[in-house]
Structures are given as structure tokens and as C-alpha cells.
Amino acid sequence: MSLRMSIDQSRPMPLAGAFTCEPGQLVALVGPSGAGKTSLLRAIAGLMRPHNARISVGDACWCDTVQNVFVPPQQRNVGVVFQDYALMPHMNALENVALPLRGPQRLVQAREMLARVGLSAEQMQRRPAQLSGGQQQRVAVARALVRQPAVLLLDEPFSAVDQTNRQTLYALLAELREDIAVPMVLVTHDLNEARLLADELVVMAEGVVLQQGRADALHRTPRNARVADIVGIANRFDGVWLGPDDQSPAGTGWLQWGRGADALRLAVRDKGRIEHGQAVAWVVPGEALQLCDGAQLPGPASGLSIPVEVLTLRHLGDVWLLRLQGLSGPRAGFQLMLTGPQPRRYAAGERLTLCLDLRLVHIMPIKTGAGTLAAAR
After folding, report:
1. Is 137 helix (H, G, I), strand (E, B) or coil?
2. How far apart are CA 237 and CA 186, in angstroms?
């Protein structure tokens, strides 16, 4: 049963937009603090009554303010994993998980679920204060799943545990997902966590749903400059859209990059959605940039070669972060992530040639209003 939510209200807090989550799919709500992520989660759970919204799971309508429908939280069968676990301190792990259950088999069901998330029989008898942070989180996950919820909501569930436990919990969630055919919504401030765990991201800012899509798609085609910033696109630049003319190749138009004598005109894909003369932002994904020598220089119809100077090279575990400064044209800064064995370490001050594949340039408005998901996608 699909989860569908649309909201458009100015009170009690501004929230606007829509998103969907299919059965077995995990959708991550991402955005800065105050973006409204937890508020949307609370509205789905019934912990907040929206002023103007519709929330449904399959054929069941949980909230429709137009029809004056509001199903209370205790009737929504929602599993929630809170950031602070919200475990009863005077109960042991088994009693905490059995709490939402009824009937003579409640302790049996709770014991089975705790075993499924990796707690031993001895750990099940401990109170929360006697468990590690990772173990408490497992109890919270077990409690959220034991009633076989229609929707699973995860509110910053891994933020209170250390990196080692976090990786273990990631693996646990991935394992549980194989058997959980319900919509799952994750709120997180950690963009890497969202990319790792989620099938799709819902990008939010200032209470507005800006865009929903796969992480790789958002990096290739963010809706606007705000989305590009939130999802962490490093190579973003400003320009002016000049549009096509008789000299631009078919299907392309001219993007002016920079001003005055240093300005460049780039022939990039024209989607016919931006007015001529409009100020725009544009991005290039990582695969559109590479260091190249003379034998690899792109042709003028599809590529641009830029002389650059190495500013810094930093080792970040499995990857290298290379920061470059353009030496001609608009003299912009670039960032490249290099993986695999490196033939050499680039030295600060070294001069190289950077190749930019213009076919992968994506142009977008600098500002966009608070449109709904239909507009965002």
C-alpha cells in the first residue's frame, strides 16, 4: 500500500509540497534544520493535525482536511523509531517491545522480534540503562516492527550511536527491508546516510518540498540552485541563458559563463524551459569532469578544456578530494573526487588541463517557488 502525502498550509507552521513512498521503498527526507522534515513525519503519524493536507495509505485515508477526516494516531498502525529511542526506563527490553501488543502471545511475539534484531535472551531481560546505545536502538526498531505496521517512520534513528554501531544498524535495516513490504520514511541530517539507505530523497527547505527523486538523478538534474546546495553539488556556477541561435548546434542553446572579456559561451542542452536573458545556475556532475592530456581533449562541439592549477589534494579514506582553480575564462574553482590507485600525488601549484563534457551540463533557475511534487518532478 503506497503512502501519499500532500500538504499546503501557512499555519500552525508553513508546510507545502507532496511526496509518495511505495511499499518496500525507503524515502529519506533531507534538508537543513528547520526545513520541516520532522513536522511531515509527525503529520503522517497523527501526532500533528495539519491545517490543510491529505494523507493516505493504500485505500485508507488518514487525513483529509477538505472532508474533515482525521484518524487518531492510535488507529493508524504506524511504527515509529524516535531519535531518543523513547523506551520505558522501568521496563526491560522484552517488556518494552511487548508494550504495544495484546493477547496471551505478546511476550512470545516480542521475544521473536528481539531475536530477529540481534538481542540475546540475556539482553532481553535488561532495562534500557543497562544496554548500549546500539542495543537500545535495536529494541526501538523491534518495538516499531512488532505490530507489523502499515508504515515505518524513522526520525534521525542513528544519530545517537557511534560510527561503528551505526554501520551495524545500517546493515540490520538493509536486512529487515528484505522482509518489510511497507512504505518507510527516514528523516536524517546526514546526506551520506540518506544516499546509502534510501531509494529516493525528498529535498526540503523552509517547509517546502522542493524535489523528489533518486540521489543520482538529483545530482544530475536538480530542480533549482537550492536543491543543488542541499544535496551537496560542489561544481555549481552562475551564468545567463542566451538561448539558441542559427550558430548553435541542433538541440542546444548558448550559456554565457562569466562577464566581460573573460566570459565564455557554452553550447549546452536546451530544454526550452528557461527564458532568454534569464540569470541561471548550472551544475556538472562528477562524471562530466576529468583531468586530461592533449590526446584526450574533447572536441569543441561537446567539450571544453580549461587550464587549471592544483590548490589542494586531500585523502578522505577511499577517495581523494582535488581542488582546482581555473586559469582562464571566468577563473572558477572546481572539485574532483578521485578514486582507485593514484599514479601520483598532484602537488599544490601544479598546472593541469581539466576537461568538461558540455553534454552533461544542467541549467536551472536560481530561485523557484514552493511548487508541489508534480512540478518538482
Report:
1. helix
2. 31
Tell me, yes or no, whether 143 and 263 share the same domain: no
**Number of domains into which the chain is organized:** 2
CATH of the domain at 15: 3.40.50.300
> Is residue 265 situated within a structural domain?
yes
What CA–CA distance (Å, rounded) separates 353 from 293? 7
Give the 3-state secondary structure of residue 269. Answer: strand
Closest to 210 (Cα-Cα) out of 333, 373, 55: 373
Residue 199 and residue 257 in one domain: no
In a domain, 241, yes or no: yes
Whether 134 and 117 have beta carbons less than 8 Å apart is answered as no
Q: What is the mean pLDDT of residues 143-158?
A: 93
Could you tell me if 239 and 66 are in contact, meaning their C-beta atoms sit under 8 angstroms apart? no
- Dmax (CA) for the chain in angstroms is 81
Q: Are residues 67 and 203 in the same domain?
A: yes
d(CA 37, CA 50): 14
Task: Count other C-beta atoms under 10 Å from residue 285's C-beta.
Answer: 16
* CA 77 – CA 362 distance, rounded (Å): 42
Same domain flag for 324 and 211: no
Per-residue model confidence as pLDDT tens digits over 200-214: 999 999 999 999 999
Give just the sign of the alpha carbon dihedral 353, 358, 364, 365: positive
Do residues 224 and 206 make contact, with C-beta atoms less than 8 angstroms apart?
no
342 vs 215, residue with greater confidence: 215
Dist CA 283 CA 230 (whole Å): 13
Each residue's pLDDT tens digit, 294-337: 555 555 556 889 999 999 988 877 788 899 999 988 999 999 98
Residue 239 Cα to chain centre, angstroms: 26
Evaluate if residue 370 carries a pLDDT over 80. no
- Report the chain's mean pLDDT, rounded to a whole number: 89
Q: Write out the residue range of the structural domain in which residue 278 sits.
A: 234-365
User: Residue 295 domain-assigned?
Assistant: yes
Within a domain: 30? yes
Q: Which of 204, 229, 254 is the last residue of a domain?
A: 229
